[in-house]
Automatic annotation (TrEMBL), chain A:
Residues 17-93 form the Ubiquitin-like domain. PROSITE patterns: UBIQUITIN_2. It comes from Tuber melanosporum (strain Mel28). This is (Perigord truffle) hypothetical protein. Pfam families: Rad60-SLD.
TrEMBL record, chain B:
Residues 433-450 have a biased composition (Polar residues). It comes from Tuber melanosporum (strain Mel28). It is found in: Nucleus. This is (Perigord truffle) hypothetical protein. Its main location: nucleus.
Length: 97, 535
């Protein structure tokens, strides 16, 4: 469904040009309206800026998988109203190779 | 007025033209708020024009300031360190004579003419204001292998003794710092004691002092309070001994007579002090939202202090923070008194006492919401409202579409637990609390959290009767199907005790009422220390 079909003049397609995304860190929530094609880096930076967090001190999860800066709502197949979870970034604790 | 400065004019300008390098010119210009771009010649021109300008205006204080900057361009704010020995800053010795005419600022005097370093400018702390030094600055030479003791004697004057014994806020404190690379002009020196250190007063070792601060956090050490160990006989020479070993740096210490300020006093000072106005906060919010690609529609802001997790009493943040989240003045200052890290609990920026301000916007929200509300929804234009789900913590797990199945489960659990409470609580607890909070559980799953609280009352009561426990649980389940609500809810499910609940329960659910009721017992969990020291 996320294949872009600009020829298709369905009204709901234009309506879903923007998505409402909830970003929450378990304490505070911010609702963002974002274009399907906008890189999520922008959203992450905006959230960090608002919350006063350093961008490299947190990780963003969508459906449990980490969101990269280059992802867009389109590439992650996000729906209107989806939630991004913000968790504290941590180092260590992984298995050593 | 200008005639007074006229004679110095030529020497000043000559000095600017011949002695100052580009970097110094830039720093002087910058301090004066002038542009610092361009090559050396335009910089010199700009500065001399500025000086001529000041002379023609007869601006004595401005001239004085510029003069200080020019002759000592290293330190941007010369006012504190005017009693300066010019031989120490190499190279600027020659123009010292004009400076010497300026009256020396009366720094609290611990003048020891012999030591090269006569004073240390310690980082200021709002908790301690140094009134006077009781001893000269005593240096502790480097001891890489041995231990060493340095003695000073402290004699308190009669008025000081009087003050100390009547007013607990006057203290004697040992300030110590590593002095390698520190000159008399170095500002904001962190307090630091040698790693291996003992402090004795009159041969009594002072215990229970944390002289190390937090690990890897320089500046988090407090001065050492020795007041209670001093002999209060007038004229008694108290011997203060600093024993240390295995140092790689030179240290120096001094005993200061200090007036301390309590957290409460500081909070009051903040309350009366500077603030960020509502308009500023809102304008800032609108400005952040100008990007058309990404629009923040609304956000939920917690009214709880990130340090204490209690509702904020006096919301403060620093002027450097660009987040809206505030923290509580009392909690923050209490932490800073213990371990002065002075970093923002939200964004970790280092914030000074002077930069702390009250956020009027946040304060307005706090003043206009009931005490039980602990988060609000903020719209783009700065308008705010009590969030529909303003209780508890909105954890990510309450999200999304598949919540229906999960919700039913949760309701069963909390419902049965609550109905236990309600059934047995009728003789004891006021039933409206139980009924409304149960109602809340039907729509907001997390109220199971709040339901746990009264559950402590439940425990001993469940021993009474098993059937009462089981039956209402069934009844709750039947309520969930809307069809059965009218018939079943009224007649069949309820036995004797719960009939009073039914009438009042199901009428429309009001989130605000629900919050008010269910949260009042939750309001003071007090995990302050855990939250505070964890970070």
């Amino acid at each position: 469904m996320s294949t872009d079909a600009p020829n298709d003049p369905k009204p709901e397609e234009t309506a879903s040009e923007h998505l409402n995304i909830k970003v929450t860190d378990g304490n505070n929530e911010v609702f963002f309206k974002i274009k399907r094609t906008t890189q999520l880096k922008k959203l992450m930076d905006a959230f960090c800026d608002r919350q006063g967090k350093a961008p490299n001190s947190v990780r963003f999860l969508f459906d449990g998988t980490r969101v990269q800066g280059g992802d867009s709502p389109e590439s992650l197949d996000m729906q209107d109203g989806d939630t991004l979870e913000v968790h504290q970034e941590q180092i260590g604790g992984g298995s050593s190779f | 007025m200008s005639s007074y400065h006229y004679p110095e004019r030529s020497s000043l300008i000559r000095y600017v033209m011949s002695h100052l390098i580009v970097r110094q010119l830039q720093s002087v210009l910058k301090s004066e708020g002038l542009p610092t771009s361009g090559l050396k010649a335009p910089l010199q021109k700009r500065l001399t024009t500025h000086i001529e300008d000041l002379i023609s205006k007869g601006d004595t204080s401005g001239l004085e300031r510029v003069k200080n900057l020019i002759y000592r361009p290293e330190s941007p704010a010369p006012s504190r360190n005017s009693t300066v020995n010019y031989n120490q800053t190499s190279g600027y010795a020659s123009p010292a004579p004009p400076m010497a005419q300026t009256p020396p600022y009366s720094a609290p005097g611990y003048g020891s003419p012999s030591a090269a370093l006569s004073r240390i400018h310690f980082k200021e702390s709002p908790f301690y204001s140094v009134l006077v030094g009781l001893t000269p600055l005593e240096t502790c030479p480097i001891m890489t292998a041995n231990r060493h003791s340095v003695h000073v004697s402290v004699v308190l004057s009669a008025p000081q003794l009087q003050q100390i014994s009547t007013d607990k806020s006057y203290r004697c404190m040992v300030y110590c710092a590593a002095v390698d690379g520190i000159t008399a002009y170095t500002k904001d020196t962190d307090i630091a004691f040698p790693h291996q250190v003992e402090l004795r007063v009159n041969d009594v070792q002072i215990s229970g002092l944390n002289l190390r601060g937090l690990k890897n956090r320089p500046g988090s050490t407090r001065p050492a309070d020795i007041t209670d160990y001093l002999n209060r006989k007038p004229g008694h020479r108290n011997q203060v001994t600093l024993t240390y070993a295995l140092t790689q740096k030179k240290f120096a210490f001094v005993v200061n007579y200090v007036k301390t300020d309590s957290v409460e006093e500081l909070v009051e000072r903040l309350r009366a002090g500077a603030s960020i106005t509502k308009e500023t906060v809102i304008a800032d919010m609108v400005r952040k939202n100008e990007d058309s690609d990404l629009v923040a529609t609304s956000s939920i802001m917690s009214l709880k202090c990130p340090l204490s997790t209690l509702r904020i009493d006096l919301p403060i943040r620093s002027t450097f923070c660009n987040h809206m989240q505030c923290f509580d003045a009392t909690s923050f200052l209490q932490l800073q008194q213990q371990a002065p890290t002075w970093s923002c609990p939200t964004c970790n920026k280092s914030i000074s006492w002077k930069a702390l301000v009250v956020d009027q916007y946040f304060r307005d929200i706090l003043n206009n919401t009931p005490k039980t509300v602990d988060s609000v929804t903020i719209d783009v234009d700065g308008a705010w409202s009590v969030a529909a789900e303003s209780s508890g913590t909105p954890m990510p797990d309450t999200d999304s579409e598949d919540g229906n199945g999960g919700r039913d489960d949760i309701i069963e659990v909390s419902g049965s637990r609550l109905s236990k409470l309600r059934v047995e609580a009728t003789p004891i607890a006021p039933s409206p609390v139980a009924t409304t909070s149960r109602e809340g559980s039907a729509s907001v799953p997390r109220s199971s959290i709040s339901a746990k609280r009264p559950a402590s009352q439940v425990i001993d009561l469940t021993l009474s009767d098993d059937e009462d426990v089981v039956r209402p649980a069934k009844r709750i389940n039947s309520f969930l199907t809307p069809t059965s609500m009218s018939s079943d809810g009224r007649g069949g499910g309820s036995g004797s005790s719960s009939s009073n609940g039914n009438g009042s329960v199901f009428p429309p659910f009001d989130p605000v009422v629900y919050n008010g009721n269910s949260h009042s017992p939750v309001g003071t969990p007090g995990p302050f220390l855990a939250g505070g020291y964890g970070r």
